[in-house]
Amino acid sequence: MPGFELFGDKERKQVQDVLDSGVLMRYGFDGMRNGHWKAKELEAALSAKMKSKHVHLLSSGTAALTVALASAGVGAGDEVIMPTFTFVASFESILALGAIPVLVDIDDTLTLDPSAVEKAITSKTKVVMPVHMCGSMANLEALQQICDQQDLLLLEDACQAIGGSYKGKPLGSIGDLGCFSFDYVKTITCGEGGAVITNNETYYQNAHKYSDHGHDHIGNDRGAEEHPFLGYNFRISELNAAVGLAQLNRLDEFIALQKKNYTILREALSQVPEITFRTVPDEGEENYSFLSFFLPSEAIAQKAHKALGENGVDACFYWYNNNWHYYRKWEHLTQKKALGKLPQEVINGLPDYSKTDFSASDHWLGRTISCLIKLSWTETEVQERAKKMVEILKKTR
Ligand SMILES: *Cc1c(COP(=O)(O)O)cnc(C)c1O
After folding, report:
1. How far apart, in whole angstroms, are the C-alpha atoms of residue 79 and residue 150?
2. Ligand 1 center to 311 CA (angstroms)
3. Are both 299 and 216 inside the same structural domain?
C-alpha cells in the first residue's frame, strides 16, 4: 500500500517549486507565487481522476471526514452509521460534531452489511458511512438503495481504497460525499493530507469555507472576507499538496504494481483448500493494497498469523485483536473517556456497547488475515513469500 516506498525526484521537484517561491499557504499571496498553486492543481487533478465535480483538500483524512459531515449539516444528536471494522477516525470525526456513532456489523465484504444497516436506522439517522477497508468495498448498490429510500446520505470513507472502483466508477465518487487520506502509510501520501469529493455544489461550498474558519473566499482581499458560518482550520499546506501532486501522477503505476504482486500471492494461496477470500461485490475492483482471506476458524487464524510472523512473513495483520481498527478494543469510545465533558446528546445517545451483539462481525474478522501488498517487492521476493505462506498455511490446523 504505502506510496512512501517509491518516493523520489518527482516529489522533490514539486516541493522545490514551493520552496523557491516561499509561499507555503494555499490561499492568497498571488504576486509572490511564481504561478504555483499546488493545492488548486491537485484538486483539479483529483477531480479529473475521480470523475467528481468538486474536490477540496484538507489537512488529513480525519479532517476530510469531519468536514464532509459538517458540510452536509450533520450536527449534535444526529446518528451516523459506521462499521465495527474501520479506523478510530470514523467515530472521532462523528463525535467532533456532537453526532453519534452507531456501530453496525460487517459481512464477508469486511465492511457494512446492508441488512444490518437497515435494522440500525432510526428517526435520528442522517448518514450511512461504509469504510472501504484494505482497498475493497461494501455492496454499495444495496447501501445506495437504502439511502435513497430512507432519505439518508451515503458517505464513502475511501481513505484506504484510492484507485479502486465499483461498477466502473472510482471508489469515493459513488456516494453523496467521499473522503481520502494521504497520510504517510496510504497508497499515495503527502505526509499528512486528505480530500473530500462531491458532485454537490452546496456541500463543496460549505466544505471549503468550514475548513478555513468560515471565510467565504469571495474576492481577493482575505481581510475583507465574510463569515457566513462558524468554521475551523483544516487547511492543507502547499508543501503537502506539492508532494500529493507528484504521487497522484503515479497512482496508476502504484495500482498496477499492487495488482501484480497481489495476483501472484492470491494464485498461490488458492492452492490451500481451507482458505477462502474476502468477497468483492459484483463489478467491484479492489485497489489491491491488501490480500484478505478467511481461515476455517478463529483458533486456526490465530495460529496461522503467529506462524507467519515467526517464519519471517511480515506485514500480515490479524485485525480482530487490533486496537486501532476493531470495536473490541475501543474502550475509550465505549466508556466515553473524553478529556472534557461530552455533549449531552452524545452521552444520552451513545448505545450501550457492552450489551451490543456483534457476533456476526466477530465471526468474519476472527477468521481474517490481511497481508499488506508492498510496491517495492521484486518478483522473486513475492514468489518466495507466496511459497512460504502456502507451506505455513497448509500446515496450520
Ligand atoms: C487513515 C484512515 C483515516 C484517517 O486518515 P488520516 O489522514 O490518518 O487522518 C480514516 N479512515 C480510514 C479507513 C483510514 O485508513
Report:
1. 14
2. 30
3. no
Q: How confident is the model at residue 221 (pLDDT cuts 50, 70, 90)?
A: confident
Tell me the CA–centroid distance for residue 90 and ligand 1, in Å: 8
Does 180 sit in the ligand 1 pocket, CB within 6 Å? Answer: no
Beta bridge partners of 235: none
Task: Tell me the per-residue pLDDT of 98-132, one tens digit each, with 9 for 90 and over.
Answer: 999 999 999 999 999 999 999 999 999 999 999 99
Query: How far, in Å, is the centroid of ligand 1 from the Cα of 114?
Result: 22
389, 344: one domain: yes
Ligand 1 atom index nearest CA of 182: 7
Do residues 130 and 83 touch, judged by C-beta distance below 8 A? yes
Q: Which amino acid is at 62?
A: T
* Helix, strand, or coil (residue 312): coil
DSSP 8-state class, residue 342: P
Q: Does the annotation mark 186 as catalytic?
A: yes
* Residue 108, number of CB atoms within 10 A of its CB: 17
C-beta 159 within 6 A of ligand 1: yes
Question: How many angstroms separate the CA atoms of 243 and 190, rounded?
Answer: 5
Q: How far apart are CA 173 and CA 52, in angstroms?
A: 6
- The count of domains in the chain is 2
CA–CA separation, 313 vs 123, rounded Å? 48
Residue 195 confidence (pLDDT): 98
